[in-house]
Amino acid sequence: MVGAMKSLERLAGAALLCAALLAQHAGDGPQPTPVVPATFPGQPPSDAIVLFDGKDISQWQYKDGRAGAWPIVDGILTCKSGTGNLYTKRRFGSAQIHVEFAVPYMPDAHGQARANSGVYLQGRYEIQILDSFNNPTYSNGSAGSLYGQYAPLVNVSRPPKEWQTYDIVFHAPKCGADRKLATPGTVTVLYNGVLVQDNVTVKGRTTSSDDTDPCEDGPLMLQDHYHPDVKETFMQFRNIWIRPLS
Ligand code: MG
């Protein structure tokens, strides 16, 4: 009799556990939105906004609104030094961003003067582009840094002229109803597929950025780091896309 009671208790316990598991996994939320992944790594998935596909820069402009004039040669966007930074016409907040770039070979330049550019998130926060292959500089100014704030976790730079990738996840700052900063932004960066910024908290806008409102969406910006001693940098870009994260 005692044995039978224990068996019944075990059965009841198992039934309760099953019910709990079913409730946990049944869920009542919507199914994830279908997205078709790219055929090749780095290419845009089906829900990405393609910002540069090798054909034109109609989605880009200079700060004053003039049409961007960086040349496209063989599908590659090349920074025209001295003409200015290039901004997307559209503005973005939190987003996943993919950028491919190749830095020029500049053996006569050193440190920050060697192939300097950058990807500015919300127009305010620079993920530094630099030739950091055998080119020491201050660590939080090297390639893959959140400029002036966080050095990359590792130096995974390829040699100049080789294509490299940034895959960035940016969570924009959040502001309260009083328009004051409530939650700072965060950034995660994979550089050539390797984690170099691990969900770091943005401390504020980076040097050389525009003093825009952190409570508002901003453009993605590619830096023309013009330097009077280095008149031509020939920074190259291709395959740029973004997925806004609402
Ligand atoms: Mg820079």
List the helices and strands and how they pair.
Layout lengths: L1 H25 L22 E4 L7 E2 L10 E2 L2 E3 L7 E3 L6 E8 L14 E5 L3 E5 L34 E8 L2 E2 L5 E3 L2 E6 L2 E8 L19 E2 L13 E9 L2
Antiparallel strand pairs: 1-15, 2-5, 3-4, 4-15, 5-14, 6-9, 6-15, 7-8, 7-14, 9-12, 10-11, 12-13
Magnesium ion binds next to strand 7 and strand 8.
Q: Can you put this structure into words, describing what you see?
A:
A hairpin with a 2-residue loop joins strand 3 and strand 4. The protein has 246 residues and is mainly β. It is built from one helix and 15 strands. The protein has one domain: Jelly Rolls. It is elongated. Bound molecules: magnesium ion. Magnesium ion (MG) binds next to strand 7 and strand 8.
Q: What best-fitting shape do the alpha-carbon axes yield?
A: elongated
What is the averaged pLDDT score?
91
The CATH architecture designation is: Sandwich
Identify every distinct bound molecule in the structure, by name, code or SMILES.
magnesium ion
**CATH homologous superfamily designation:** Exo-inulinase, domain 1
**Helix content range:** 10-25%
Q: Tell me the strand percentage band.
A: 25-35%
Report the CATH topology name.
Jelly Rolls
Query: Using only CA atoms, what is the Rg?
Result: 24 Å
Largest sheet report? 8 strands, antiparallel
Number of distinct helices: 1
End-to-end distance: 61 Å
Give the H and E element order. Answer: HEEEEEEEEEEEEEEE
- Supply the helix-strand structural class: mainly beta
